[in-house]
From TrEMBL:
Protein name per the record: precorrin-2 dehydrogenase
Swiss-Prot/TrEMBL catalytic activity: precorrin-2 + NAD(+) = sirohydrochlorin + NADH + 2 H(+)
GO biological process assignments: siroheme biosynthetic process
Secretion signal, residue range per the UniProt entry: none
GO molecular function: ferrochelatase activity; precorrin-2 dehydrogenase activity
Keywords recorded for this protein, A-Z: Lyase, NAD, Oxidoreductase, Porphyrin biosynthesis
Pathway stated in the Swiss-Prot or TrEMBL entry: Porphyrin-containing compound metabolism; siroheme biosynthesis; sirohydrochlorin from precorrin-2: step 1/1
Leading EC class: oxidoreductase
Entry keyword annotation includes Oxidoreductase: yes
């Protein structure tokens, strides 16, 4: 099965996690990093120590009770992480009937969406999936890429994110903007950031950026190198 890759904006959204074991807790931690308005957690067992640490987060609501169908009301995403396969399948069917996206742990073919192996370097987020065929392979490739893309990659993306709107504000032709971004992205800038060579970074920006932006180079480099 081929899935459609997408990054979702969950800020202000309401999500549901059924089952707060190790897998469910990991899902909750990842969800909270995306700024949802609420994550309702339903589990018949009391919260684990790791789960208790998340209860101080205002967005987390923990209900120690069995799942009820009305828990699905208004939920953008549903994660089902219990060890009861029949319950998991039942909730998945409910979500499918209601047109809600549901992820069932360890059951990709029954899920409305799957969660890729991910890592981030600041604003750069890398997501990998084998379509559920082999999560272990996805994890291995993720680890290799994670080792290859060091912390400087995140700083590089941050810098490019600061430069881009300043260049666009100049109102130059699209082709000129594209050429500037291409040279910065494919040139020695990232390596210079990785080496912590502030002088070289400044020289590269002076060479590649329009003269109108030279007075702002110090501003865009603040905290980068």
């Amino acid at each position: 099965m081929r899935h459609y890759p997408a990054f979702l904006n969950l800020r202000g959204r309401r999500c549901l996690v059924v089952g707060a074991g190790e897998v469910g807790t990991r899902k909750i931690e990842t969800l909270l990093s995306c700024g949802p308005a609420e994550v309702l957690v339903v589990d018949t067992a009391p919260p684990s120590a790791r789960m208790k640490a998340l209860l101080d987060t205002p967005a987390v609501v923990y209900n120690q009770r069995p799942f009820e169908e009305n828990d699905l009301e208004g939920r953008t995403l549903v994660f089902v992480c219990t060890n009861n396969a029949q319950l998991n399948a039942t909730i998945g069917t409910m979500c499918e009937t209601r047109g809600q996206l549901c992820n069932i742990a360890d059951a990709p073919t029954q899920s409305g969406f799957i969660v890729p192996a991910t890592f981030d370097r600041g604003s750069l987020v890398v997501a990998l999936s084998t379509g559920g065929a082999s999560p272990a392979v996805a994890r291995r490739i993720r680890m290799e890429l994670e080792a290859a893309l060091g912390p400087s990659c995140g700083a590089f993306v941050e810098l490019m994110g600061r430069i881009r709107p300043l260049v666009l504000e100049l109102g130059m032709p699209t082709a000129a903007n594209t050429e500037i971004f291409r040279k910065l992205a494919h040139g020695p800038l990232m390596a210079a950031i990785g080496e912590g060579d502030a002088e070289q970074v400044r020289d590269i920006l002076t060479q590649e950026l329009p003269a109108a932006l030279h007075p702002r180079i110090g501003e865009v480099l603040d905290g980068i190198v």
